[in-house]
Structure formats: C-alpha cells, structure tokens
Here is the input.
Amino acid sequence: MKPAQDAIGAYPDFAYPEHWTRRSLLDLENLSAEEINTILDVAASLKRATDGCRTKLSLLSECTVANLFFENSTRTRTSFSLAARRLGAGTIEFSAAGSSLSKGESFIDTAKTIEAMNVDAIIVRHSTPGTPHLLDQELQCAVINAGDGPHEHPTQGLLDILTIREHRGDIAGLTVALVGDIAHSRTARSNIWGLLKLGAHVIVCGPSTLVSRRWEELGVEVVYRLDDILDRCDVLNLLRIQFERQATRPFPSVHEYALLYAMNRERMRRAKDDILIMAPGPINRGVEITPEVADGAHSVILEQVTNGLAVRMAVLRLLCHAQRDQRKEHQ
Amino acid sequence: MKPAQDAIGAYPDFAYPEHWTRRSLLDLENLSAEEINTILDVAASLKRATDGCRTKLSLLSECTVANLFFENSTRTRTSFSLAARRLGAGTIEFSAAGSSLSKGESFIDTAKTIEAMNVDAIIVRHSTPGTPHLLDQELQCAVINAGDGPHEHPTQGLLDILTIREHRGDIAGLTVALVGDIAHSRTARSNIWGLLKLGAHVIVCGPSTLVSRRWEELGVEVVYRLDDILDRCDVLNLLRIQFERQATRPFPSVHEYALLYAMNRERMRRAKDDILIMAPGPINRGVEITPEVADGAHSVILEQVTNGLAVRMAVLRLLCHAQRDQRKEHQ
Amino acid sequence: MKPAQDAIGAYPDFAYPEHWTRRSLLDLENLSAEEINTILDVAASLKRATDGCRTKLSLLSECTVANLFFENSTRTRTSFSLAARRLGAGTIEFSAAGSSLSKGESFIDTAKTIEAMNVDAIIVRHSTPGTPHLLDQELQCAVINAGDGPHEHPTQGLLDILTIREHRGDIAGLTVALVGDIAHSRTARSNIWGLLKLGAHVIVCGPSTLVSRRWEELGVEVVYRLDDILDRCDVLNLLRIQFERQATRPFPSVHEYALLYAMNRERMRRAKDDILIMAPGPINRGVEITPEVADGAHSVILEQVTNGLAVRMAVLRLLCHAQRDQRKEHQ
Here is the structure.
C-alpha cells in the first residue's frame, strides 16, 4: 500500500499507533481511557489529513467493509459508508429487512456468509443488545457496533466526545449533561462510559419515567429538572425522545416535555457563556430544542455529523489494520 | 488533481469554461442561452473524451455527490450516479421514502446533515415544486434539480436538446413539438424554456384537458390535433401519459388517446423525411408510440439515454468545480 | 489498461485464454467441457492472484456491470457486485421490484435503457425461465444468468464444481449426489449439466414428489433413499427445500423430510471418509443438515461462498473482454 504511506507522509502529525491490537469495537464500557484517546487522536489526524473529512486517502484501498443493518438507518449507515470510501475501502450493503433471515443460528450463518466473501469489517446494527458481541465471538473479521438496541452506540459516543474535545481541549473536569430519554438511549450509555473514563462529571437529566435513580450506580449525577443544572453545565447533549422505543408514553404531552426540558432562548440566557449545545440527531425542533438554539452560535450539531466521519474513519483504520496484521502473522 | 489534467490534455477540443460561476442548477427558466450552450458544449466534449460516455475520467475524484430522492426513480438516479462515477466522484444514496422525515424544517435538517458529511452536490427529486430552490437557499453546496413535481427537470431538457443538436447542428429555426401530457410534465417545461432560449419554434400538442391556451403566454404554439402539425415538425418529443399525476382521467380511453396522438407508421409517412422521434421514457408502447416507430430509423430514444450521462457529467463537472473554486477563495 | 497487465504480470500462472469468444453466459447446458474448464482455470488463477479473492486487480477498471434483479437476492447480488469491484469495475443496481415495470416488451425496454448507459454486462435474475436468453437476443452487451426460475443458475453450478475440483483435482470419475428439492432447483440443473460434461457420475436423490424418473433421460441416476447411496458418494450437495417455489407441500412434514434426507452425525459415520458436504445456502439447520455436519470438518459450505467470488470474477473477466474486443473490431 504505497500511496497510503505517501499520502500520510505529507502529514507529519499523523502517528499510527503501533500498539493497537483490539479486533472489534463493541462498546465504550470495556475500552480503556488510553484506547479512547487513541481513537480520538487518530480521528483528529485523519480529519486534518483529509481537509476536514473532505478529500480521500488510500489507507484502506485493499479492504472491504460490510454494513449489516437490521434496523432502519440512513445517517449512521451513510456515515460509515462514506468513512470507508474516503479511505479507499469498498463497501457492501446488507440490509436484512426481515426477509430470508430468522433468528439465532441463521443470523450467524448470514454473517459468516458475508465474512466468507472476505470482508475486513462487519458493521452491525440490531435491536437486540449484545448482538455485536455474539458476532464477535463467531467471526474472525472486525465487528463494529453501530447500535445494539438501547445498549451502546460507541461511535456516536466517540464523535460526541471528539466534538467536545475540539472545543474545550481536555475532557477532564468538564460538566456534561445528557438530557431527555436516558432509559432508551444507547447514545447516553456510550457517552456516559466514554466521558467518565476521560474524567468528566456527567449528569443525566429527564423526567423520572425516563431517568432512574439506579443510574447513580454508574457514577453519574441524576437530576430531574433542567433548570437546576443550567448554570454549571459546560455541555448539554439533548437526546431525541425515541417514541419508537417506548411502550407507554412517559409524559403527559410533548408540550409538557418541552416546557421542562427544551433548550430555548430563555434558558440559554441562564446557561454558561461558552456552553456547547449538542444533539445526536435527527432533532425534533420545538421538542427538545427550539430553532433559534439549534441554529445558534453555541450549537455544534452539524460539526458532530462531520466528526462522525472522522471517528468512523479512525475506527475502520485501526481495526482493519489490526486485522491485516493478524492475518499476516498467521500466514 | 493531476490525472484529470492529463486525461483532458489528450483532448485538445476540451475547453473548460473559466467563466462558469453558478453554484446550482435549479431550472432552465433562469439560465441564459449562453449558459445552456456552455453546458451542452462541455457535455459534447466529455462525451468525446469518454468514447461516447463509456470510459472514465478522473475529473472529480475528490468529490462526493449525494442523491436525495423523495420520489421513486431508477433511471434518473442511476444516470446521475453513473455520470458522477464516470468522472471519479463518490456517490451516496439517500432514499427518503417517507420514513423519519416529515416536512418543512426537518426536510432541510436532513439536507444539512448530508451537507455536513462534506458532499459537493446534492441531487434532489421531490414532488413539491420549488424544493430545490428552497434547498439552494439553505445550503452552501451545489443543488441539482432532478425533478420537482410538475415544475422542471432541467437535465432532461438539456439531454433532449443535446440530442437534437447532435443531429441538426443548430437549434435556432427548428420546429419542435411536445406531444401529450403537457400539464403534468416537468420535461415539457424544461424543454420549452431551453428550446425557446436557443431560438426554436415550440409547439405543445395534446387533448385540451392536458394543454391549456395559457401556454401561449410562454411563447409557444398550442395545437390540439397532431395531424395538423405533422408536416412541419423537425422533432417530435412524445411525452408519457403520467397517470400517477392525474386526479381524473383526462380522456375517454387509452385507445382514444392513441387514435389521436400516437406516432405510428401511417403518421410517419406524412411527417418530414428527416423527422426526429424522441421520448423521455419509459415509453408506453401502443399508447404514445407504436413499436415500429420506437424501434425505427428516426427514433433517437436510446441516444437520449446516453446523452443523459453526457449532460449530467457536464453539470456535475461545472458545479463541483465552481464549488471547489469558491471554497478555495474563502480559505 | 496498463495497470491490469502489470498486476497480472506478477502472476506467471495467469494465462488469459485468447480463444474465448462467447458474449454471454446463459446456462451450462450449452457450454462445452473445454469452456467450463476455461472458466474454472481463470477462476483459479484470479483467486491466487487476489490472495484468495481478497485483494483487488485493475483488470476491468474501464467496465461497468449492472445488476438487474427481478427476484429478491442479497447473496448472489452481493457476490456479483463484489466480484466486479474486486476487478475494478463499476456497478449499478437496478432492483426492479415490480414498480414501473410490466412484462414483455417493456421489460426489454428497461434492459435496453440500461444498455444505453453503456454497461458492459447485465446480470439478470428473473422468475421466468429463458429471460436471459431473450435479453441476449435483444442486446449487444454481455448477459449473465443469475438464476431464471427453476431453470439454471450457471455461476452456482460453476462455483460448486470449482470447490469440488479444489479438493479432488479431477471431476471425472467422482460420484456426486444432489439431495433434496430437485424439481424446483436451478442449482441442481446447472450442477447436473456441468458435472456430466466433466465426466462425473451424478445422482439425484429426494422424495418422489420432488424427483421424477424422467431425470434419468439427462443421464443421471435417480434414487429415493439417501441411505442407499451414502457409502458410494464422494460429494453430497444438500439443496434447500424451496418452500417459495412449491404450490403444494411435497412431503408430510419437515420432521419427516429430515428423518429421511438430513445429513446428520449418524449418517456421516456411514459415509466415505473423505466425503465433501456442500450446500448452496442459505441452509436450514435441522432440515437438510444438522449443525454438527454444517460446521464439521467435511463441510465446505463457506469455501463455496468464497469460490462464488472467484467464478464470478472469471466470468466477468472473460465476457467483458470478449465484449471490448468485439467492439474494437467493429470500429
């Protein structure tokens, strides 16, 4: 892979971490702070080397990456595809909308068939928590969790953290609040694990039907009124109300929710001067965020989208290379 | 982008118009004759340089183009994708079949999210007239209208005109008739604007339920019987009856329609010796055209398909370069 | 196409057969043994040259291949796409799920439209036997049959035979049994034609509702009890029960079927020591095969998937080159 070397050679700040050995990215819970920082560093380097995730590098031109999505997704799937192709990798789309697939073993057979087409990484989204972990046990190729039910969505956590780091430098010591539907949010879980490992103070905030006291066991602060914490937050991450994951309606009305938890102009006045407003998207304007805040100077929502590319390029780069190295050793 | 230069260097007739500044292609109504000719000239050059739209050039190898289609389409979408990839650009498909998208603001949020993934151009098809114009106001990247309801479909107009130009040289002075469902046809509108600007005489012809006298205000001739104009047309463009856009049936039966408006062997005998038979496709054999005419010596229907690639390559080339140039200036 | 030459130059065992002239691959029935061996030889060479169908070659970087699938498929479609892209070709997906397409002439119009976008090969799957043959008559580009109803699926036959050849060397003299739903299986038909031409003894085995005596006319042995032939088979190819192709249920219950025809641990004990267990997939664990056999040492099911890439690369290579050569001659 000569061109890759050359392309990177032009960016002296790109240091490929020789010590990365992990084959899959399943969650942030089991990553060390060092591993998280490695991914963030590689993401930052790749972002610089590609003019802000715009141009291409030939780092993975020999690799093929498969999207295996059992839940609808256009954003995350497109982001992974673009990240792969910006590094020169080929992509295949395996949308398993029910069809010939049933459960249990045949699900693994499908994944093994894809692996037998010699892909280097399978990116999997599934409504059942633990699916990527199961695949990781059964396959030799890299497995990347793109969301397993309400459990984790590690690249979402990483891109949120990268965005904070770009604006604040160090994560340690920052106060970050996740607001809204904590109970059903894989984004919340991945953010919590990542932020805690890097030394942030994390608050989860929402109606008591969506935020339980048991979250305190993870080491986060549990709060029920956004107004109580506004003046001490460095970052607000406004989670979407995931109506599709809720059996019963956890609050009287959308209006009621917005009244207590929406970030609006009035609340912005009581927030820190340099507060960052984040949201994983798609946003519900008028529910968790008003248009003037979503489009305002503190909003970094679209930067998060761009950083999604950076983080996914970094993850693909690290895992596919570890993959290739291992295969060479076995030969 | 060295390779592009080299590839083009081999074709001395390829003159890239330095003066192109338009960021988006929204319609033909607002283009000047000079701009239309520029697109056609670049299309003709690219067609020559790619052995008739067959081989590849590396002109846009740093670019990514997104298809954002809110209406079903395989032809146009595939044509845009192929055009992009024949120039080395990457493509992403964003099929927004209802799903998580509602209307108004959230539609723009979707487009902004795609833009934040650093695409250079968004190709949009939507059932609401004016959607591409709205996007153009909200985005920084190039926006290409691939059909907005019954309003316009500019690349279809351009490919039709390119096909005529290839056979007749100059458009000025030709008599071109658009036959069929004028009322619901974005193809008709784009053809009318383009042809008039280049000096053609344009006739619209169809049942009075589908062709109103008010079209005369645009500067075209309105006719209700195909037989009245057959002997003075240089080109017939046979529009498909778009049943899906019609609330009520505008004529007694398909048979009745075919009797009055279908191009058949008998009508061909009364037409000019060198008449060109065109159709935007998909054609309904036996409705607006009989098989012997569709497959006959005067038919250029399949050439239109190939010219669709040429025109879309030209548009992508012009807009993406203007795009990149502007970004460089801002830096 | 300089790079292609270079890439291949590094593999002295790659001999491109100058004498290949066939434009399309429609079935195995009409191929000669020599032609089948040519495809297998090229497949084996390409597999070696790509590190087991893993890395890329630039043999078809000027080509575009279209998938035109009228039946659902993810495996075969993905396999063809990957094969094309591993050789540098572009791909377009034309999923004709009913939609604007009806039957007869308009189906051919669709294919002609795709051809007019200058594709080099159209890969077609359709529920009607003979569809690829019809297309072949109407088009100038290469046509590849990816399954036409219960008729043939030639690349499946070829990949099965390649897998046998890799393990046993010569096909001549081997005894190969196809077990299960012979009546509805295009895989069975393609295997039978290919294996017979290469000199194998072929047995078809299944319930009498799915295997008729008339198969003897093709030159195969017809057997109704798996237990009668176990000890003399070199290869068992376990076909899936294709419930979707059956009007009435051809056996009392799945349990009943498994009792008589499932390959399980007990039957393995009575089989030859070096028996190969194959299945075209997707497999129904517990129906035609038990998990310990599917995952056992004799199973080559996943090798078949990889060889699908090799065979499809070979077919695309041969047909696209014949295609390009013919075009040059015409110029």
Chain B is about 40% helix and 15% strand. The CA atoms of residues 108 and 138 of chain B lie 7 Å apart. The first helix of chain B runs from residue 2 to 9.
